[in-house]
């Protein structure tokens, strides 16, 4: 038998002498000198150093492929990117009233009412199931969220997880929103649109997932750390998480909805952060958004008190700088007015006879949050 031909290339890892035939795909994509590795192990081990070559190349040419050049006065470094076309939902899946027209008529009909729905056991089971599917989709998004992956690719993962469970991604076409979840990066507070921007080392990414299953909605979100994130951002993300959990602790029958804001403000203001005022938690169930309205800041005048059978979200948006927000010219993406970062966590909660149940709770299979590693 003929002797196996030894490749002319040597492994890019200087500590390795082995011949190498595996080429770094990112180098190829960026048009760099080919970098060879002997195998996946050296490629992985040497990655922290090797990736710096990619970064330099990107800085040299300015990685602006896919950026929408619209002349908008952005408040921070983030820019709009191209978005992909709308994803389909199979015909057999039950859809909300806005799926075609964009108009949630059932919600619009009850606007102005102060009534807070009390759900029956049967309805609660429906919302519980929607919440379980939401949790699965959020965990799938979390597993997919890595440096170099676009939020559009995560949209595909979220969309497919939801429709595999015969459910509908609630954000899709809600007031004409074009995607199946909201992706809010860095200075985006909420309602970011998944697009073609690859996630960058050091980003923070909030994925907000809502699911409609057999007539019931659920709603939850988490903020993930992408790659190596600055300590200041970790503190911000941790503050948003802890503020939500502290607010949940006070929830039980008889508590006024306006009390939630004080718990959140007290926790995060102590750390020098601020609470967004424009966007609030909300009732969720038969409708995507309904009563109660749940502001997250101290001194709010929200109506009503908690009663067994109420279902609503708490979803504090916490800013590193000032609380003020503004809207991008896509009419969805809400960003901080000062361009500093913002973080958020959200759960769907059920008030029980003696406390509250987190319907969207993490499970044993949920990838651990980076802030807890
Ligand atoms: Zn949400
Ligand atoms: Zn929500």
Automatic annotation (TrEMBL):
NCBIfam families: met_pdase_I. Its main location: cytoplasm. Associates with the 60S ribosomal subunit of the 80S translational complex. Belongs to the peptidase M24A family. Methionine aminopeptidase type 1 subfamily. Keywords: Aminopeptidase, Cytoplasm, Hydrolase, Metal-binding, Protease, Zinc, Zinc-finger. SUPFAM superfamilies: Creatinase/aminopeptidase. GO terms for cellular component: cytosol. GO terms for molecular function: initiator methionyl aminopeptidase activity; metalloaminopeptidase activity; zinc ion binding. One of its GO terms (biological process) is proteolysis. It catalyses: Release of N-terminal amino acids, preferentially methionine, from peptides and arylamides. Zn(2+) 4 binds at residues 219, 282, 315, 346. This is Methionine aminopeptidase. Its cofactor is Co(2+); Zn(2+); Mn(2+); Fe(2+). It holds the Pfam family Peptidase_M24. It is an enzyme of class 3 (hydrolase).
């Amino acid at each position: 038998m003929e002797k196996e031909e030894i490749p002319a290339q040597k492994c890019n890892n200087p500590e390795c002498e082995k011949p190498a035939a595996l080429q770094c795909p990112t180098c190829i994509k960026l048009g760099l000198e080919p970098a060879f590795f002997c195998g996946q192990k050296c490629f992985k081990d040497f990655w922290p150093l090797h990736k710096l070559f990619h970064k330099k190349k990107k800085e040299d040419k300015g990685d602006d492929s896919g950026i929408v050049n619209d002349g908008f006065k952005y408040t921070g470094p983030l820019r709009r990117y191209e978005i992909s076309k709308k994803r389909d939902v199979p015909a057999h899946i039950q859809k909300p009233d806005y799926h075609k027209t964009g108009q949630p008529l059932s919600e619009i009909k009850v606007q102005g009412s102060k009534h807070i729905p009390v759900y029956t056991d049967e309805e609660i089971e429906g919302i519980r199931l929607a919440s379980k599917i939401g949790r699965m989709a959020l965990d799938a998004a979390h597993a997919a969220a890595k440096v170099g992956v676009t939020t559009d690719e995560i949209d595909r993962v979220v969309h497919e997880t939801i429709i595999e469970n015969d459910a509908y991604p609630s954000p899709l076409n809600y007031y004409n929103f074009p995607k199946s979840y909201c992706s809010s990066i860095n200075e985006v507070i909420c309602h970011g649109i998944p697009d073609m921007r690859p996630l960058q080392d050091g980003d923070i990414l909030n994925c907000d997932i809502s699911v409609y299953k057999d007539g019931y909605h659920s709603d939850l979100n988490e903020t993930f750390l992408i790659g190596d994130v600055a300590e200041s951002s970790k503190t911000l993300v941790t503050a948003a998480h802890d503020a939500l959990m502290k607010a949940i602790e006070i929830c039980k029958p008889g508590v006024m909805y306006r009390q939630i804001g004080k718990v959140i403000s007290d926790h995060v203001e102590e750390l020098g952060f601020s609470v967004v005022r424009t966007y609030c938690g909300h009732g969720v169930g038969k409708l995507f958004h309904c009563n109660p309205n749940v502001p997250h800041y101290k001194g709010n005048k929200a109506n009503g008190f908690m009663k067994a059978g109420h279902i609503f979200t708490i979803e504090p948006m916490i800013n590193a700088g000032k609380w003020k927000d503004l809207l991008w010219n896509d009419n969805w993406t809400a960003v901080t007015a000062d361009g500093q970062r913002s973080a958020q966590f959200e759960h769907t909660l059920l008030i029980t006879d003696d406390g509250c149940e987190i319907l969207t709770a993490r499970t044993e299979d949920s990838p651990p949050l980076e802030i807890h590693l």
